[in-house]
Amino acid sequence: MKMKLLCTSLLILVLLSGCVSEKTFTTNDIEKITLALMKTERFENGISYTIHLKNDSDFVIKQNNVFVSYPIKLGESGLKDNQYTVEADGNKLDIQPGEKITLHVFMPFEGMGDQSVLGIDDPSIQLKGFIESVDNEHFFSTGGSLIKDEG
Fold first, then answer.
1. Which of 23, 47, 59, 134 gives 130 a disulfide partner, CB atoms 3.0 to 4.6 angstroms apart?
2. Is residue 9 part of a domain?
3. What CA–CA distance (Å, rounded) separates 27 from 124?
4. What CATH number has the domain bearing residue 95?
5. What's the CA gap between 123 and 25, in Å, rounded?
6. Is residue 94 predicted with pLDDT exceeding 80?
7. What would the pLDDT profile of 41-84 be if each residue is shown by its tens digit?
8. Cβ(65)–Cβ(47) under 8 Å?
9. For residue 84, what are the contacts with CB-CB under 8 A and spacing of at least 6?
10. Which residues pair with residue 48 across a beta bridge?
11. How would you write 88-141 as a 3-class SS string?
12. Would 6 be classed as within a structural domain?
């Protein structure tokens, strides 16, 4: 009888431990991870950007990379992505909920080619990272225009 009770208790314990679910992140959580342009400085040889990355989600950003690029102009009103990107300096691992870090990007003019076909006044920013764990299930990507219209 005691053996049967022990086996039943162990079985229930195993079943309950298998039912523990991991909290999953959603698009709403990703929207709480923000990139904000704080400062732009123009130099003779390029443009420097200071950016704040803030994690207002409830999750740890385990690993991430931030890239800035100038989109390629297509006619009067079209733009397309540019494969030439520059990775931000100052990044770190394990960005905790509520934490803010400062990133720096210097976009050199050298090597850009014809600047008239680039959207230098409208740089793009992209954040690629992992929430809680570095694996395919926890990958996210977000981005857009670095310079937001405030109107």
1. 134
2. no
3. 20
4. 2.60.40
5. 28
6. yes
7. 999 999 999 999 999 999 999 999 999 999 988 877 788 888 88
8. no
9. 69, 70, 111, 112
10. 41, 106
11. CECCCCCECCCCEEEEEEEEECCCCCCHHHECCCCCEEEEEEEECCCCHHHEEE
12. no
- Model-level pTM? 0.78
* Total tally of structural domains belonging to the chain: 1
How many Å apart are CA 42 and CA 46, to the nearest integer? 6
Query: DSSP state, 71?
Result: P
Structural domain range at position 137: 25-145
pLDDT higher than 80, residue 149: no
Domain contains 18:
no
Q: Which residue has the tokens 């870090």?
A: 101
Contact partners, residue 150, CB within 8 Å, separation at least 6: none
Place of tokens 């230098």: 120
The pLDDT, as a whole number, for residue 113 is 73
5, with CB counted inside 10 A (0-12, 13-18, 19+), is exposed
- In angstroms, the first-to-last Cα distance of the chain is 75
**Is 16 a member of any domain?**
no
